[in-house]
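Before surveying the methods themselves, it helps to consider a single example record, giving the amino acid sequence and backbone structure tokens:
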Amino acid sequence: MRRFDTIVLGLGAMGSATLCQLARRGNGVLGIDQFSPPHALGSSHGDTRITRLAIGEGEQYTPLALRSHQLWRELERETGTELLTTCGGLIISSSAKTSRSHVENFFDNTLAAARKFAIAHEVLDAAEIRRRFPRFNVADDEQGYLERDSGFLRPEACVRAQLMMAERRGAEIHREERVSRFDASANAVTVTTDKNTYMTGTLIVTAGPWLPGLV
């Protein structure tokens, strides 16, 4: 039975990034995916995903976002692939807060994170939004948060680039291999697939929507 320092199950956005960074550190790592990533059967397909630096969902995520932009630029240089486009991002909110968002005080949280972490931004009143972005029909009580370095990532290209660099750094990748179970003991985790059985000291599961079938 082959043994690895780490096994990563699922090689979408999270799994490919984990695999790439572990391989960079010299970890003996195996990545397994039941399909051939990038593919359209998980959470990381499509043309674009928005990326922001000041994170209104919680300022604790902002240092991670800042670091991620550094890593994307490194990966672009290493692979010669365009992954991150910074085109600026505009968030509009009413001072009356009559609209609902997925996080309470999202606009205020975003602004506070930008100020705390010195992220380049502007706060625009309604008149300035109309002048600079005339396509938006904003109310008089609305304001905007404009972040210069917001933009978008190309998720499938990101997955492909991270897997390529992981393999260059010594990671082993098994595509089209389905994990049927894993069992933990005091000293190791045994991973069983439709092709083989492996042992590892650390198992990382990044299976996205396929997670319920594994746990």
